[in-house]
Specification:
This protein has 3 helices and 6 strands; from the N terminus they run αββαββββα. Strand 5 (94-103) and strand 6 (106-118) form a beta hairpin. It has a single domain (6-141), classed as Thiol Ester Dehydrase, Chain A (Roll). The protein has helices at residues 6-9, 36-54, 126-141, and strands spanning 16-21, 24-34, 60-71, 77-90, 94-103, 106-118. A 6-stranded antiparallel sheet has the order 1-2-4-5-6-3, covered by helices on one side. The chain has 148 residues and is of the alpha+beta class. The radius of gyration is 15 Å and the shape is globular. 26% of the residues lie in helices and 45% in strands. It starts with 5 loop residues before the first helix and ends in a 7-residue tail after the last helix.
């Protein structure tokens, strides 16, 4: 992945997006003794990038709520994991996703994530953010990591 500035991308918790369909997305992430909170954030980022792609990067995307989230192992995550997201429903301003993390075809974490979308405005600069998210998305889609 090409990193423009460490400060701009240090919170990107995805290693790669390797399949994107109109209603689904797959990516991967390698965790190193990471707490479940980072897995939740990774899931949210996967869903948000899918929405940005589907709507052409033309609006701001944000997480409204994690509707439910099941953590199967009680300990930290370690290793390479597959992440899959599927859009369950959508409206003009909201998207509901089911997102899960698996390791060796075993579900590790899963949940439902509600996202909102809003027009760019004074707080969210369209010219800067559109390019920023397109560049990160392009880097994730073209990353040279292995599929789990």
């Amino acid at each position: 992945m090409v990193i423009q500035s460490k400060a701009e991308t240090e919170f990107i918790l995805l290693d790669r997006i390797y399949d994107i369909q109109p209603n689904a997305i797959k990516g991967n992430k390698t965790f190193y003794q990471s707490p479940a909170s980072l897995a939740i954030e990774s899931c949210a980022q996967l869903g948000a990038f899918h929405i940005r792609f589907v709507i052409g990067f033309c609006r701001h995307v944000f997480l409204i709520r994690v509707k439910e989230y099941k953590i199967y192992p009680a300990n930290n995550l370690h290793g390479s994991f597959c992440m899959t997201g599927a859009c369950l429903s959508r409206s003009s301003d909201a998207f509901l996703y089911a997102i899960q993390i698996t390791n060796n075809n075993e579900t590790v974490n899963k949940g439902k994530f509600l996202f909102g979308v809003a027009d760019y405005d004074k707080r969210f600069d369209k010219s800067r953010l559109t390019k920023h998210y397109q560049d990160i998305f392009f880097d994730l889609v073209n990353a040279k990591s292995r599929e789990p």
